[in-house]
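Following up on my earlier thread - several people asked me to post the actual chain instead of describing it. Fair enough. Here it is, all 612 residues.
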Amino acid sequence: MPRVLLIGSPNSGKSLLFNRLTGLSQKVANFPGITVDVGVGTLQDMRERELVDFPGTYSLQPISAEERVAVAEFEKALENEEVEQVLCLIDATRLEKSLYFTLQVIRDCQRAGKPVTVLANMIDVLDRHSLTFDTEGLAQAVGVPVLAISARSGKGLDQIVPRLQENAGVQQGRVDGKLAGAPDELLRGEAHQLARRFGPKGDVLVRSQTRLDSFFLHSFTGGIAFFVIMFLLFQSIFTWSAPAMDAVETALAWMADLVVPLLGEGIARDFTADALFSGIGAFLVFVPQIFVLTFIVGLLEDSGYMARAALICHKPLRIFGLTGKSFVPMLSGVACAIPGIYAARAIDSPRKRLLTYMAIPLMPCSARLPVYSLLIAAFIPAGTAFGGLVGWQGLAMFGIYFFGMLCGLLVTGVVSRMSKDHFNDLPFVLELPPYRMPGLQPLLRNAWNRAMHFVTKAGKIIFTVTLVIWVLGYFPNFGADLGESWLGHLGRLIEPLFAPLGLDWRYGVAIATSFLAREVFVGTLGTIFGIEGAEENMVPLVDHIQASGMAIGSGVALLVFFAIALQCVSTLAILAKESESRSLAIKMFFGYFAFAYFAALATFHVVNLLVG
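Reply from S.P.:
Thanks for posting it. Predicted structure:
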């Protein structure tokens, strides 16, 4: 099928334009590096043509991972006979930044014989500030058509399809224009001159951004704003998603009550109840958090604030070998490590991207919450301090969250200093995009797509592991006694490993099943103690744990173990895929397991020594 290429620099509105031209749901972000995949969609008004969307890049001399993807695919596409023409998007409000890359694209397209149309986006912003842009003069200077458009408002988009239809089916050879043989150094100077001649005059946009930056990047007000915004973000993750999580849990329970009785007694009924609704259901309950997190982070990205937050965090993160761009992935990892690993693609430096991969699994993800809540309720008194202002259990929850984050930073700090190229790495370069009002519809659409992507990709792996765990726990006695099942025998086999922590085979089995998902630890213990619905009614399970005689040192040791151990098969799978290294995922799993074990062992002895 004939193809049209869409290419442009980051934050130029390219993905939003792709959505409008194809009707597809493509990510729209205002933080460099968010769009990292090459997308393909059919043009709505030219069904016989495909539109190919490339990741944003600043030049055809790539530095970051996404730029390498964009440039490699673009160069390959120019040699493809199915590619008819190219749409190059520029930001009319930041003309000089976009023009250097645009001139490179025009030059390479002239060499390959592909027609180019330049689309000057954000024209609505110029109109709002009474600024003008000489598109006709720029078109004559560069030798290709220049169309003024607004991907957000839709202004000027009706010019694009007629231009594409005019060039459809046209095959031309190499064009010996004045740019065809120009080196990059000449193009950079040419971009500066063209921006001065034809770009908008005045500094209204710059002054507006400077006023906001004077607040958000100020050493005092910027710090306060950062903590307030981060507080609201955490509130959104753990509070605003709660009704949706309860709704998912209620829907799953209703479906289980409806479906399970219809199956009658036997293996099919047990598998449906225990593996599908209990195993997969525990995983689905956390999907609303992925949706809410993606939506709120999208608001921060599209508004232009996320780049400022990365700049604020760069100096403290640099101490631990990370970069300001590591902030976004690590923050995403607080809800779930998987979107955090995806977000790490935005980091230019391969070395700092690797260090960020190592920190993300140690962020206190939401899957740890049921485990933390159970163990804290069992071993930490419910009293208060400071006149009731501080609860001991709440303080313990804050402490274990802080402990996980601190471990992540300490690991990256140690590894970065052990690396031979500690002082030989790419510099921290970050574009501060203009402040803009986010578009609600694209954000909601992207949040939904990210949640569904999480379900479809990670769900396959979780279903497979759930099936294995269920078979081990169900046979050979058909679920009559979990302790005498294959899983129970496995628990007794690994019991000597956890005995130094004061844990018996039951907790060994729960830890083994938590490799599927950490929250399964609660359900497994509930089954072992003969309690149905442990996830919904945790008080009886707390009583059973307290009555089992497990020492407080063992309970605190379990908290430390789960704060560090990489007990998530989905995270490992995504980590291996994104880093293109199964070896890294395997090393991190065993390395963090050893770290978690010995840290838990030390905690066990210290706590027992303190409490006698």
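Residues 3-201 form a domain with the Rossmann fold fold (CATH 3.40.50.300). That should answer part of your original question.
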